[in-house]
């Protein structure tokens, strides 16, 4: 099994980014969407991105032309998937829409073609089972924007064949990305299982301790080794993305997340973060600005409950054989920008202190906080 021809379904931010990185690595790419105008917009963005690389002398004008020459745009689905070795679907994160796409795709794609869904939260096995080829179906989660982010989560479904997993991992490496395999199709995979619950936990911490956003964010940045504060990171990601992921995680596993109403409230008020000018913080219309965080503010907040939250979910992934500590640390470093390993932070705080914190929270607020057996054993 080898990959030469790739079809990307959906030409939005993720789709055209995946098409670009694939073409830059020498693949023949067909980019498909339901209307030509969407494809024209996507090609404009790819051209702009490549022009920037030429200006920065990362690639030559000739290389840029050759990359563009490897990308074709086609509206007709049957024609778009003809001869494709790998089809990467990047349509919006709506289960019914994805299932509809795959029912059409299954009819027209060659029986040997591998299907890969670029989803961040939806269950791979459930989507795969709507096709006649679940053994040739896999999850491939690029991070936004695909041109810049190094991490790609690879998620086999329950029936995914080992050769399909190997082929996907090889493809990810070939486009100069770092694959992390989530061995089980668990809610949130690796990165979102760590990140999304932590946003809610930060809201609870703010409410329970009557803290300011900047105090929590400073503690997260300076004490937990995050590249920015958790509320800042949430605004950067977008409340629409976080709210959608929260719902998906909750449907699949009640214990993964303890939702705080503020996230849904911001979403309903269309305060989506930077993209709308306001989320947890307010943003001016000018260029992207960073929130002012400092070590003095960090001293006003003890972030142990946040460290406990991310460690408990990391431990859950190990206990449930979805990943191991080394892969989780790699995913957190590349996907969340962590400057310090999660378990190293845990050891600095003291695993015993983390477990005590979780037990105290469980007594006050319920079973969601019960410590994972792995953490208990590490004391």
From TrEMBL:
A GO BP annotation: fatty acid metabolic process
UniProt keywords, alphabetically: Oxidoreductase
Domain 3-hydroxyacyl-CoA dehydrogenase NAD binding: residue ranges: 5-185
Gene Ontology molecular-function annotations: NAD+ binding; oxidoreductase activity, acting on the CH-OH group of donors, NAD or NADP as acceptor
Pfam families linked to this entry: 3HCDH (PF00725), 3HCDH_N (PF02737)
Domain 3-hydroxyacyl-CoA dehydrogenase C-terminal: 188-283, 307-377
UniProt cross-references to PANTHER family, sorted A to Z: 3-HYDROXYACYL-COA DEHYDROGENASE FAMILY PROTEIN, 3-HYDROXYBUTYRYL-COA DEHYDROGENASE
Protein name listed in UniProt: 3-hydroxyacyl-CoA dehydrogenase
Annotated source species: Candidatus Nitrosotenuis cloacae
């Amino acid at each position: 099994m080898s990959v030469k021809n790739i079809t990307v379904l959906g030409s939005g931010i993720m789709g055209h980014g995946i098409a670009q990185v694939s073409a830059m690595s020498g693949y023949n790419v067909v980019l498909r969407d339901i209307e030509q105008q969407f494809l024209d917009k996507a090609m404009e963005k790819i051209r702009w991105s490549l022009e920037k690389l030429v200006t920065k002398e990362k690639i030559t004008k000739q290389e840029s032309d050759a990359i563009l020459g490897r990308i074709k745009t086609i509206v007709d689905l049957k024609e778009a998937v003809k001869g494709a070795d790998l089809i990467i679907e990047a349509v919006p994160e709506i289960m019914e829409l994805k299932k509809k796409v795959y029912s059409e795709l299954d009819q027209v794609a060659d029986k040997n073609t591998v299907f890969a869904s670029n989803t961040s939260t939806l269950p791979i096995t459930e989507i795969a089972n709507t096709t006649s080829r679940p053994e040739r179906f896999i999850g491939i989660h690029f991070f936004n924007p695909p041109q810049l982010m190094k991490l790609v989560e690879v998620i086999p479904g329950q029936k995914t064949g080992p050769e399909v997993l190997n082929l996907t991992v090889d493809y990810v490496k070939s486009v100069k990305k770092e694959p992390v395999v989530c061995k089980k199709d668990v809610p949130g995979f690796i990165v979102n299982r760590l990140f999304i619950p932590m946003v809610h936990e930060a809201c609870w911490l703010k409410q329970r301790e009557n803290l300011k956003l900047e105090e929590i964010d400073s503690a997260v940045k300076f004490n937990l080794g995050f590249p920015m504060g958790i509320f800042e990171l949430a605004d950067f990601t977008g409340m629409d993305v976080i709210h959608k992921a929260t719902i998906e995680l909750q449907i699949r596993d009640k214990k993964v997340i303890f939702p705080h109403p503020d996230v849904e409230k911001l979403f309903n008020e269309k305060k989506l973060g930077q993209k709308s000018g306001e989320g947890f913080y307010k943003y001016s219309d000018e260029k992207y600005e960073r929130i002012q965080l400092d070590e003095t503010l960090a001293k006003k907040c003890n972030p142990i409950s946040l460290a406990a939250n991310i460690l408990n979910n990391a431990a859950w992934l190990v206990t449930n054989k979805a990943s191991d500590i080394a892969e989780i640390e790699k995913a957190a470093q590349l996907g969340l920008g962590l400057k310090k390993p999660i378990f190293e932070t845990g050891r600095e705080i003291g695993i015993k202190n983390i477990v005590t914190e979780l037990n105290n929270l469980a007594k006050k607020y319920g079973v969601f906080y019960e410590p994972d057996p792995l953490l208990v054993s590490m004391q």
